[in-house]
């Protein structure tokens, strides 16, 4: 056990503020020093569990005075090393701030604390007839989802955290409390600080309250599964569906290996072939109309076995299996890790980009299922690597580098929804150019001149 | 005629860069020193007409070296004094940068120069089957619309410039060229600089290229007009429609005085009563479904004469009349100006906020039609003032102050779509708090330390 690097006075101050809610125990630090990424753990020196914005502000003031880094922590489900305490410091675990503050059902909005998870939110507002659509694979916290600009399977219809956060409260590096945005559906009042906080990955502020848009539960929902002769055909079906302007709620691609992984992990009996999962939302007539259009498009591209999941429990099982796909794929090689890629390209470029990526996987003998939110042009490759093999990891990293360059050549982005985190900082200038990175750096410097908020994330150091 | 305050060397440099495209003529400066707001004109010292991003960058480098302010200029249709050269300097007129750069019809996006107007864009892409929905009253430039985070009559369905700008190129105060965002539908790659530029009103960068989302022209469109016994009833109909989750494309309120103004100005024969304009987009069946729901809701609140505009030319006439409402209302008192308010509140607060505002108008004997994009909770009061009467103006300003405080008390914003500009800076801290304003100021300082980009706008000086 290493000596704790925190000043004793800081720990005393924190313990005085949050009696019983400060831990320096090895097990607690270990739990907070890792996430779902393939990066090696990096432990914080202490973990604190605030309950209120004021407590987070007080923690920030104390850490700021002591010059100690702060790392916000939610569900720990990051795939990009967001929570790694690579410069040590205090991990601020926000999961005990898990209260729904105010539901304004008549305005379709809700204000929550950041530790509320997406499933918890939907469970608690069920009786309102409203729901919150954004669903990354994990049951992430809403604070973490805002911080990483997360999305999920139905962003194609409902947008991402960027479009669905109306307002936020955030604690700045020096402990000042920023309130931005609000409950109005639109505003042209000054710089869009709410959008600046979304996707800043805890490097500009610690989100302590969020106001989110909600949507009426559709009158009718229908889900379906369809197999295709090849990934290429499935992707062409997606492109055609999007280009026809069908307001589809979900359209997800799984390649054969992903389907095999899901069948093994989730005990499903899906046909093991390139597959699309669909979901349609609307009025009963609207859903019928969308579904028949998409069924016709599927046939055009050789789709077979268009099978329906009409009962809510069948739909839940289908989407739970989709959400568990990450764990299912990792489970293909027990004990291995996954380097999970996240590129996103314009829909017209999707087919070429995926085809070249599949060639690359085959040419390099990687075990790497492909799946993703292809209605947005976003797909993931889960490159499975043996943690004992440095060579494996190097091959995965080299593949990732090629994939990102390929996506950028197709006018895409290195990350559709996972964020930059610790692992993709080297791609930031490649994607946006040096001027954009220097502007981001100037903003970071203006808001956090001591570089205390989640250091070594987003911006290359 | 005042002496030109610009260094002679700067004018020479600009003339050398842009031969024949630099003007210091009084008439040109007067044209560029005013907009549609009620503020007195403030003339720039020179006006330049660049054609490319590189030219704008060169202008910025020259002005930066000379310490001279720069004011971007589009259609001059601002209602908030955005283009007033209150510290003198060089007006950068972007209207000659009016080319559509690339249309990606298959990806539903288009890249344009900033001087392209919304009507020009829709005319030029007509054959693609796509359209750009955002429509402020004026035929504004898309650069200006992005800079002010504009919206219009169908934001309730399609969002504002915030949601519809995918990427942008902007020239910074020192002439560096920032590229941000891109063509992917979503990205989690770093700070959202595109959203920071949207609504920054030319104070952080000069937008020289924009990539915008487009939408398929709906299979079916239907528009209708309905009268109500009172504004209160009309607003309750709006609230109910929104709360039912009807995906309405447009739902606009006009009070009796607005309708009278429109009839006089646009030679229409609308019944002179509180009125809603509706538009429905979707499949033929979808539009029928929406329309019959809304018709039923209208009846519930005493709506009568639900009359349809089914032919495209009737619809165009209806919406042109709506878009001309601003000029129609001003025309109620020829020679007078309008102080145009722009508050936006959560939909549940709309009825109370409008009722209190009407009481205020009556109690103070103002001539002030009310109209607006009530599906978003956004409404305008056009307070007509005699420019010859300082008392009139003071009464209008006092009314505006009360209205903004009322909207903020209803958890709204001082501006839904017009921006802060020159006139609302005093409300920024009231709405967002001192911390938010200080963060905005820190960002401005980081990006434009010499305060050369559109000084005295957005942030109170």
Automatic annotation (TrEMBL), chains A, B:
Its cofactor is FAD. It is an enzyme of class 1 (oxidoreductase). Keywords: FAD, Flavoprotein, Oxidoreductase, Transit peptide. SUPFAM superfamilies: FAD-binding/transporter-associated domain-like, FAD-linked oxidases, C-terminal domain. It holds the Pfam family FAD-oxidase_C. Residues 40-217 form the FAD-binding PCMH-type domain. The keyword Manganese does not apply. Transmembrane segments: none annotated. Its EC number is 1.1.2.4. InterPro entries: FAD-bd_oxidored_4_C, FAD-bd_PCMH, FAD-bd_PCMH-like_sf, FAD-bd_PCMH_sub2, FAD-linked_Oxase-like_C, Oxid_FAD_bind_N, Vanillyl_alc_oxidase_C-sub2. It comes from the Bacteria. Belongs to the FAD-binding oxidoreductase/transferase type 4 family. This is D-lactate dehydrogenase (cytochrome). It comes from Niveibacterium microcysteis.
């Amino acid at each position: 056990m290493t000596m704790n690097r925190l000043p004793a006075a800081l720990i005393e101050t924190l313990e005085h503020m949050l009696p019983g809610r400060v831990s320096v125990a090895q097990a607690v630090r270990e739990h907070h020093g890792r996430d779902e990424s393939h990066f090696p753990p990096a432990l914080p020196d202490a973990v604190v569990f605030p309950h209120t914005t004021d407590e987070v502000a007080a923690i920030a003031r104390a850490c700021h005075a002591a010059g100690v880094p702060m790392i916000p922590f939610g569900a720990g489900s990051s795939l990009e090393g967001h929570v790694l305490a690579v410069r040590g410091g205090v991990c601020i675990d926000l999961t005990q701030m898990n209260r729904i503050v105010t539901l304004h059902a008549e305005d379709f909005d809700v204000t929550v604390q950041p530790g509320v998870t997406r499933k918890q939110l939907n469970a608690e507002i069920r009786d309102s007839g409203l729901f919150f659509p954004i669903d990354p694979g994990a049951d992430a916290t809403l604070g973490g989802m805002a911080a990483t600009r997360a999305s999920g399977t139905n962003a194609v219809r409902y947008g991402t955290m960027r479009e669905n956060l109306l307002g936020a409260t955030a604690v700045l590096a020096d402990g000042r409390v920023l309130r931005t945005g609000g409950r109005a559906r639109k505003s042209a009042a000054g710089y869009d600080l709410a959008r600046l906080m979304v996707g800043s990955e805890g490097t500009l502020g610690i989100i302590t309250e969020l106001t989110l848009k909600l949507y009426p539960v559709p009158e009718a929902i229908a889900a379906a599964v369809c197999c295709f002769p090849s990934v290429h055909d499935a992707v062409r079906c997606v492109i055609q569906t999007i280009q026809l302007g069908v307001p589809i709620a979900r359209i997800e691609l799984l390649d054969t290996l992903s389907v095999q992984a899901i069948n093994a992990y989730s005990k499903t009996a899906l046909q093991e072939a390139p597959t699309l999962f669909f979901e349609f939302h609307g009025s009963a007539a609207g859903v019928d109309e969308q579904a028949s259009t998409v069924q016709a498009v599927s046939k055009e591209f050789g789709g077979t076995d268009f099978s329906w999941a009409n009962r809510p429990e069948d739909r839940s099982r289908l989407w739970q299996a989709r959400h568990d796909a990450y764990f299912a794929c990792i489970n293909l090689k027990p004990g291995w890790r996954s380097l999970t890629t996240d590129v996103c390209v314009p829909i017209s470029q999707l087919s070429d980009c995926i085809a070249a990526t599949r060639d690359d996987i085959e040419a390099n003998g990687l075990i790497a299922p492909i799946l993703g939110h292809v209605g947005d042009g976003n797909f993931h490759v889960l490159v499975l690597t043996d943690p004992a093999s440095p060579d494996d990891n190097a091959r995965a990293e080299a593949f990732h580098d090629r994939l990102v360059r390929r996506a950028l050549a197709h006018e895409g982005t290195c990350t559709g929804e996972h964020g930059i985190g610790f692992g993709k900082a080297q791609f930031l200038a490649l994607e946006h150019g040096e001027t954009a990175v220097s502007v981001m750096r100037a903003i970071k410097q203006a808001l956090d001149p001591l570089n205390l908020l989640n250091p070594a994330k987003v911006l290359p150091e």
